[in-house]
Amino acid sequence: MKKNFFKPIIFFPTIFLLFAIIFLIMISPLKMILLNASPEKPTYIVQILPNTPVAKSGIQINDELVDINDRTPKDPTQASLFLHDNMGKLTKISILRNGKKIDFNIQLNSQDTGNGYLGAELSELKL
User: Fold this and answer.
1) Could you tell me if 26 and 78 lie in one domain?
2) In terms of domains, do 74 and 109 share one?
3) What is the reported pLDDT for 32?
4) 3-state secondary structure of 70
């Protein structure tokens, strides 16, 4: 009876390749969790409250907030944290409107009066 020595040589690399592919598929979400790296999401102004810093500035609903003091937030939550870091300060807010970047210098509220330091609701979805 003749033994086939080639089957294990083909079988093991195939299994290794399969595990390598599965590992690469799984590592991408795991890397995001471990590095606290979530995909970037746009931040839109979806509501502007009256008598607030943003209402006086000229920023409009559906403007995309792209920078706060030259720091780019990756999502609305991080944008809120950046605004908190600048509470009570004159802050450079950069937005995108119709593909054009516009800068505003806004004096943020020194306290969160229930409508945030900017006076706007932020969302990753446009209205």
Assistant:
1) no
2) yes
3) 57
4) coil
Q: What is the pLDDT of residues 4-51, one digit of tens each?
A: 555 555 556 677 777 777 776 766 665 555 555 556 889 999 999 998
For tokens 């000229």, what's the residue? 58
Token code pair at residue 17: 């390749």
- Contact criterion met (CB below 8 Å) for 53 and 108: yes
| Residue at token pair 């509501």 | 47
- Cβ atoms 104, 95 nearer than 8 A: yes
Domain carrying residue 119: 44-123
- What is the dihedral angle through the alpha carbons of 81, 35, 126, 123, rounded to the nearest 10 degrees? -30
Q: What phi and psi, each to the nearest 5 degrees, are found at residue 40?
A: -70, 140
Q: Report helix, strand or coil for 101.
A: strand
| Separation between Cα atoms, residue 75 and residue 2, nearest integer Å | 65
Mean pLDDT, rounded, for 95-118? 87
Q: Are 63 and 104 in the same domain? A: yes
pLDDT tier for residue 75 given thresholds of 50, 70 and 90: very high
Write down the H helix ranges in the chain. 6-34, 53-57, 76-85
